[in-house]
Amino acid sequence: MPSLLSCFGGSTESSKPSPSVQTPLLPTQQQPQQHGHAGTRPVDKSVDASRCVFCAITPDRFNIVLEDDDYICFTDRSPAAQHHLLVVPRIHIANVKSLTAQHVGMVREMQALGAKALQVVSPDAKAERRFGFHIPPFTSVDHLHLHALELPFRSSLRSLKYRIAAPPSSGYHKGWSWFAEYTQACGILADGGRVSVGRC
Ligand SMILES: [Zn+2]
Ligand SMILES: [Zn+2]
């Protein structure tokens, strides 16, 4: 049974070939473009980058789909859905609870890169796509990462990790949930709030 905490990392399913891995993942002509060694970017000096797996993303260890100057998008090693990508900022930001109103633009840029990358791995899809963040303590890697999913989920059990909780009333953006869908997160942050597991 997959742990709620295992939003990244190895699993018994990792030996299954992922369709996206077999697709030639070429960047589009415009930005974002592939860069060289992604591990050489500047990081928060207070963070030991050698101990943060997402501060050390390199093409030999990650299947990078798209990247630009600010973000990297790669396939999740334990996909919960038909297509499952992660988008991380190059700078170290701990998690969605670290975000404030000034990060709304960043969240939108992360989603845009994730959507573009899903289009790369699944150009003809009409399926529902879902974007969002896990909220501590329901995170595995403490480096902000946006999940970019193209449904269907691989199992109903795994879909629970990405359940969107509707707001209980008009004063809220989300209900009680360990997953903040990205428009919920943007709404909370734009209103000056902070994303949390409880309704907000
Ligand atoms: Zn996660
Ligand atoms: Zn990091």
Structure description:
- It comes from Pseudozyma flocculosa.
- GO terms for molecular function: hydrolase activity; nucleotide binding.
- It holds the Pfam family DcpS_C.
- Keywords: Hydrolase, Nucleotide-binding.
- With 200 residues, the chain is α+β, with helices and mostly antiparallel strands.
- It has a domain of 137 residues: 2-Layer Sandwich (HIT family, subunit A), CATH 3.30.428.
- The chain has 4 helices and 6 strands; from the N terminus they run αβββαββαβα.
- The chain has a 6-stranded antiparallel beta sheet.
- Helix 2 packs antiparallel against helix 4.
- It is globular, with a radius of gyration of 16 Å.
- The two termini are 30 Å apart.
- The protein binds zinc ion (2 copies).
Write the SSE topology.
Blueprint: H1 19-22, E1 64-67, E2 71-75, E3 81-89, H2 104-121, E4 129-134, E5 146-153, H3 156-159, E6 179-181, H4 182-190
Antiparallel strand pairs: 1-2, 2-3, 3-5, 4-5, 4-6
Helix pairs in contact: 2-4
The protein binds zinc ion (ZN) (2 copies).
Number of helices: 4
CATH superfamily of the domain at 22-158: HIT-like
| Series of H and E elements | HEEEHEEHEH
Low-confidence stretches: 1-6, 9-43
Tally of extended strands?
A: 6
InterPro entries: Histidine_triad_HIT, HIT-like, HIT-like_sf
Pfam family, one: DcpS_C
Keywords: Hydrolase, Nucleotide-binding
Biased composition (Low complexity): 22-34
